[in-house]
Design a protein that fits this description.
single chain, alpha+beta, Cytochrome p450, binds protoporphyrin IX containing FE, signal, monooxygenase, iron, monooxygenase activity, Cytochrome P450
């Protein structure tokens, strides 16, 4: 322990900072996962470090170091930064995905797990399948609006599962929520988050968001409060009348165990409202990445469609019960998540006490990024990591290999790792299986022939393909009829 008290502590390597401001200008505003990965190579260290204005920032770039720290030392590495701008002024403190490592978080997480854990996620399958049948119909009728349809499908299934809302496209209940989700993206993109991490930036005029930001934050907070409260109140009204349908919130309200000491109302509002915020944009990002990969790598479609035709046939749509028999579809899901993780730096954790790792110092209150992208692009584990190649997960005979690790880091780290991952993987399995069962995904037709796509992703916390065009063609005679009759059965 004496090394901790040594006046010249040894930190992990990183770029050399300037006097006083330290590495302020090195802290990456965009594509941080690539910068951190480059530093890791340049300084030959899986953990890299910068310091700016007294704040220490670390990026963990290898799966081994992530296991050692996040899994091995959960009492130190499971907290999250609380920021004035995002949490307080803009109302995001309600989201337990961002909350401190405390008893209220623990209780939120325990109750969520009870309804979304690996053994019970199957209770949501019929709602997920219904959302997919609707998605196919939308893609059939307006293929080029695929990105909007994906957003609808990912959002509406969460409303159905959490509040038993059966929302069609354009439903006001979706309109109430989506703008609030977008405030989070806006906060990340304007760099407000950095002001929070380095409070001293508030005194630098160019950085300080000032009165205008405070007005903006008040508007955000209003939207965020509506997102959490409105669906909750609507469900409670149905519950009081005895007409509520089964869902997550209904099970919570009906659970005798819910006689908790917490202020019960806000506890449940925040528990349920966080699901849409955490689960919609992430799923949307992965599904758009899937479409981009299909346009770029058409031969992958043929390979998977052979499996779908053989296992499922062409006279009905796939269901969750086909999953074990569709390893090629699962290989696509894993490769989509590996190729471009929706949260390439997961979400930053915060240390709760001083620590030493491999002889290097990590003080209490540091920001720690787990660089999922770097781990999932490590050529030692995934050769030719920039190529989209689902076959890397399959044996020659086409079953899932057990010697190539699944991209678990896409779901984050330690105690804070995504508890919605079973639900998310089920959703992605269904999306890939449904879309490829009936459609050929191709380049859009422009005035001068097919429109090429670029492999470009947005550079912030949540990273998804930049807008691109694609077309969805029914791929066999009878595909259109199959889509229409399956969707009609739900009406
Ligand atoms: C492809 C889709 C998804 C990806 C890539 C993803 C990824 C992540 C990541 C990286 C984290 C942060 C982990 C960390 O800080 O170490 C997280 C947290 C979380 N996710 Fe997901 N997620 C996805 C879908 C979902 C879905 C569908 C739900 C809900 C049904 C969900 C619910 C949550 C919650 C509640 C947290 C906060 C956990 C906590 O703080 O304890 N996620 N997710």
């Amino acid at each position: 322990y004496t090394s901790l008290q040594h006046p010249r502590r040894k930190y992990p390597p990183g770029p050399k900072g300037l006097p006083i401001v330290g590495n302020l200008f090195d802290v990456p505003m965009k594509n941080g996962w690539i910068t951190f990965c480059d530093w890791s190579r340049r300084y030959n260290s899986d953990v890299v470090h910068v310091e700016a204005l007294g704040k220490h920032i670390y990026a963990v770039n290898s799966a081994q170091a992530a296991k050692d720290l996040f899994d091995g030392r959960p009492q130190i590495y499971s907290d999250k930064e609380q920021s004035v701008m995002t949490h307080e002024l803009s109302g995001w403190r309600r989201a337990w995905a961002l909350s401190p490592f405390d008893d209220v978080w623990r209780e939120h997480r325990r109750l969520f797990h009870k309804h979304f854990g690996p053994g019970v996620a199957s209770r949501h399958h019929h709602k997920q399948e219904k959302a997919m049948r609707r998605l196919l119909l939308l893609l059939l009728d307006a293929p080029e609006d695929f990105s909007a349809h994906i957003r609808y499908a990912a959002g509406s299934v969460i409303l159905d599962v959490v509040y038993a809302f059966d929302a069609l496209p354009g439903d006001v209940r979706i309109g109430q929520i989506e703008p609030a989700v977008q405030t989070f993206t806006a906060l990340m993109e304007t760099g407000v988050y950095l002001v929070d991490v380095f409070p001293i930036l508030k005194y630098i005029p160019a950085w300080f968001p000032g009165a205008q930001f405070k007005r903006q934050a008040a508007q955000y907070k209003h939207l965020v409060d509506v997102m959490f409260k409105a669906p909750y109140e609507q469900f409670k009204a149905a519950w009081a009348k005895g007409v509520a349908q089964p869902c997550f919130l209904g099970s919570l309200l009906g659970d005798s165990e819910m006689a908790l000491d917490y202020e019960r109302e806000d506890f449940l509002t925040n528990l349920t409202g966080t699901v849409y915020a955490a689960g919609s944009d992430t799923t949307v990002a992965a599904m758009n990445t899937f479409v981009l990969a299909m346009v770029m790598y058409p031969e992958v479609q043929t390979y998977v469609q052979e499996e779908l035709d053989r296992v499922v046939g062409r006279d009905h749509l796939p269901t969750m019960s086909d999953r074990e028999r569709l390893p090629r579809v699962m290989a696509i899901v894993h490769e989509v998540l590996r190729w471009h993780p929706p949260l390439p730096l997961a979400t930053p954790h915060r240390t709760m006490s001083d620590d030493v790792y491999n002889g290097r110092f990590i003080p209490s209150g540091s920001v720690i990024f787990g660089n999922s992208w770097a781990m999932l692009h490590d050529p030692a584990t995934y050769p030719a990591p920039h190529t989209f190649d689902p076959k890397r997960f399959l044996t020659r005979s086409g079953v899932l290999r057990d010697d190539v690790p699944l991209p678990t880091e896409v779901f984050g780290f330690g105690r804070r790792a995504c508890p919605g991952r079973y639900f998310a993987v089920d959703m992605l399995f269904l999306a890939v299986a449904h879309i490829l069962a009936v459609f050929a995904v191709e380049r859009a037709k422009g005035a001068r022939g097919p429109v090429d796509v670029k492999e470009e992703f947005t550079p912030y916390v949540l990273s998804l393909p930049k807008p691109f065009r694609a077309h969805f063609w029914p791929r066999f005679d009878g595909a259109e009829e199959l889509i229409r009759s399956a969707a009609a059965a739900d009406m």
